[in-house]
Structure formats: structure tokens, C-alpha cells
């Protein structure tokens, strides 16, 4: 649907004024801001209301945007907005270069997002079905402890510590480490999990029965499904929308159960910003909120999703370019670390 320039400008000003004040916007305010008569403004607002872009909460009140109004605003008015160079430089300083794990990098990105936007942010790690084994490491910790580290091909890292007493003699740790990598490297997490019993029976019976607890502990790492990390939820409590007990209850349910957040990352497009406004999701608890996500992918493998939770009257002009830039930088750092790891692996093989 096309809007003429005047309607487009009025819709933009109504949305941005409502974003700033959380109060319905009247014709007198717009008349002063736009230099148009109140009668002209009223006619244009009435036309936007008929189109479904504005609504009047009370007969004597001004107008507020609808979900359709926000959607048109996001798709047609702020589509090409970008951050200023100084804003990008500020984010570059905050996002570390020395984080070793992708999960830590994603968590750090969510903290930066909530800090810059004053909304809640979240990150979702990938499902294990999308992961294959890149490397398994067995590391001795002192006399009787052994750390198991599982690295996935998408950068996911899982680890646990077990008591090494009577499990694996110290002199055999390296040999068994090599054996596990020989057998399991390149296999899908789910395939290993589904076939762990025959693997133990057919492959390990003749080696050492005491190794079985180690393999079972390794298997526990494979069964961990995607995790959701939420940051800045307290930012939302100051919003007037959450003064309503019903809206507050729904928000708390979203961040406590995390079910809706997990489901949303299964939709949308990889490498793109995905904006879900109010009733556009199938979740009743989210009808008063907007969710914006950025799905991260390396070599066709999903490595995680970052997102923002805010009110429908979110500051889209600020939030969308912010999450886009942070997501792009996150992707760049992940690919750089991934490339560095592969180069180190090649060097070790040459040596």
C-alpha cells in the first residue's frame, strides 16, 4: 500500500511522538510540528485510521499507531537507516576481540544490546541437531579430575569435569582422546546420542569397562538443547505498558518460560533482521510487544540468534540499525575466529 508524502510524514511523526511519550497524539500537536492546519491534520489522521494504521483509544483522545501502522513504518520509512560512525566506533570498543567461545561472544552482545537500547535482550544457542563434532579434548586437571571439552563445527563449546579415578589411567588419556576423535569427529550430535549404546557395546567392550562412565558423561553434553540467555529484563519494568498487571504477567511469563523466544528463532531468515510486531506472532503473551531477531550463520550452519524484546512503541529507528550492526560485527568476529582455528589446525598437521 502506498501513502502520499503528507500521510507518510504524519504517520512517522505520530509514531515517534507516541514512542517518546506513550500518550495518544492529537491534531494540535501535529499542527504545530508540521505547520499544517488542525482541520487538515484531522482529515489525514482519519484517513490513516480508515487504512488501519492509526486508532483512537478513546473518543476524546488523540491517535496511537496500530500493529499495521508500525509494520508500514518499519518496512517503508526506516528501512535504510544506519548508525552514525561514532555509534559504530562505540560498539566496536565494547565488543571484545579476546572472547574464546562463540557462546560468550553472543552473551556479551546481548549485554551490549540491552545497555544501548534500554530494552530486554536475549540470545539463543543452536539446537544440537544442527551440530557436528569438530573436536573432542580430554584434559587432565590435577590428580583425579578430567575435563571433557566438546567443540562443534559451528563454534559451540560444551564442557564438563568428571572424577578420573579408576576411569582412565593418565598415560592413556592422550591415546583415548585420539581414538574418540577418530571415531566421532564429523558425526552429528543427534546421531551419536541415538547410537551411544551400540557404540559402547561394539567399540568399547574390549578396551576398558571403566571408560563407559566417561562416554556417558560425554553423551550428556550431546543432549543439551538450545539455551536462552536474557539480559536487561529490569529495563522493561520502568515502561508504562508494564504498569498494567496483565501485561507485566505476560512479559514475566515470556522471559521465565522462554518458550516463545525459542520458537521465534525457528522462523525468519538467516543473516537478516526479523521484526515481529504484536499480533504478528502466534503467542498471546507477545501481543503487546515487539521482538527483533538476527540469526547468525557460518558456512550454512546456525551458530545462534540475538534478539530484542521491547514494547510495540519501540524506538525502531535506533534499535534496528543497532542490532543489525552488532549482529554483523558478531558474524565477522565469529568467522574470523573460525578461520583462525582452521589455520591453526592446518599448522599442527604440517608440524
Short description:
With 351 residues, this protein is an alpha+beta fold. It has helices at 5-21, 27-34, 38-50, 67-77, 85-94, 102-117, 173-184, 189-194, 196-204, 212-222, 233-236, 245-257, 259-264, 316-350, and strands at 54-55, 64-65, 120-124, 133-141, 145-152, 157-163, 228-231, 273-277, 289-298, 301-311. The model is unreliable at 346-351 (pLDDT under 50).
Please give a structural write-up.
With 351 residues, this protein is an alpha+beta fold. It folds into three domains: 5-77, Orthogonal Bundle (Arc Repressor Mutant, subunit A), CATH 1.10.10.10; 85-126 and 226-347, GAF domain (Beta-Lactamase), CATH 3.30.450.40; 129-222, Enolase-like, domain 1 (2-Layer Sandwich). It contains 14 helices and ten strands. Strands 7-3-10-9-8 form a five-stranded antiparallel β-sheet. The chain has a three-stranded antiparallel β-sheet with strand order 4-5-6, with helices on one face. Strand 9 and strand 10 form a beta hairpin. It is elongated. The N and C termini lie far apart (63 Å). The relative contact order is 0.13.
